[in-house]
């Protein structure tokens, strides 16, 4: 398993898919270290250690390359969330980009609507996202939300929910600015430190929980997801049309 994993790491490395390659190198190194512990043949141990040393050196080089790309604003990370995958709560996706300098956030998502719209928990998702921002380590002072109006009778409930979130955020010294657009289609989240995250399904990539007392109802890390793709860019590396 260790050999297969590092083989995959090398393939990804050659293809310049460095973020995925780094993960495979790290997993492969861990597996090979377990092999070394279980091997009694000293000659084999020596060969394994040599290979592990080479892989560790390459993994460190990739880490430095990724950090430089981040600093230069040329970093692009893509995360593919598989159907029914777990472990992809908002903290998992956003936390590394929410540095202490982040004070302003823009959320563009056409479907921040009533809690029961299409049997989904869209307003609760946005509320959970706001809770993550409040916990830090960033010092968010302003959140800009651009969304679309709910249809029919759901509009008043949508407005009521958003106003409640707005008032609650105000108690934490955070201003929520809400705007509506009938033509918005794109879904993206931007931070004023330059990071931009595009999620195919927006904030609504979690499946409906099986019940109010089922695992995953409160902890989004345990909630199964819909299949979607997450792309992370820096605005230094994006072109304005």
Automatic annotation (TrEMBL):
The lineage of its organism: Eukaryota, Metazoa, Chordata, Craniata, Vertebrata. SUPFAM superfamilies: MIT domain. Residues 1-71 form the MIT domain. It holds the Pfam family MIT_C. This is MIT domain-containing protein 1. PANTHER family: MIT DOMAIN-CONTAINING PROTEIN 1.
């Amino acid at each position: 398993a260790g050999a297969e994993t590092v083989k995959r790491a090398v393939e990804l490395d050659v293809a310049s898919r460095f973020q995925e390659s780094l993960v495979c190198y790290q997993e492969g190194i861990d597996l090979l270290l377990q092999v070394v512990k279980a091997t009694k043949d000293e000659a084999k141990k020596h060969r394994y250690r040599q290979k592990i040393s080479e892989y560790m050196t390459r993994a460190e080089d990739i880490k430095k390359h990724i950090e430089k790309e981040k600093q230069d604003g040329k970093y692009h990370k893509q995360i593919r969330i598989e159907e029914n995958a777990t472990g992809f709560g908002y903290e998992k996706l956003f936390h590394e980009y929410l540095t202490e300098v982040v004070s302003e956030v823009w959320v563009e998502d056409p479907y921040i609507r009533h809690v029961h719209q299409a049997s989904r928990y869209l307003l609760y998702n946005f509320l959970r996202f706001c809770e993550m921002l409040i916990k830090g380590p960033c010092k968010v002072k302003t959140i800009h939300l651009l969304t679309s109006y709910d249809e029919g009778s759901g509009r008043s409930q949508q407005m009521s929910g958003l106003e409640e979130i707005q008032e609650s955020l105000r108690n934490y010294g955070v201003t929520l600015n809400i705007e509506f657009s009938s033509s918005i289609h794109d879904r993206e989240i931007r931070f004023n430190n330059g990071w931009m995250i595009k999620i195919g399904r927006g904030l609504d990539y979690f499946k409906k929980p099986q019940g109010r007392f089922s695992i995953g109802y409160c902890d989004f890390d345990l909630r199964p997801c819909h299949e979607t793709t997450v792309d992370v860019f820096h605005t230094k590396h994006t072109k304005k049309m």
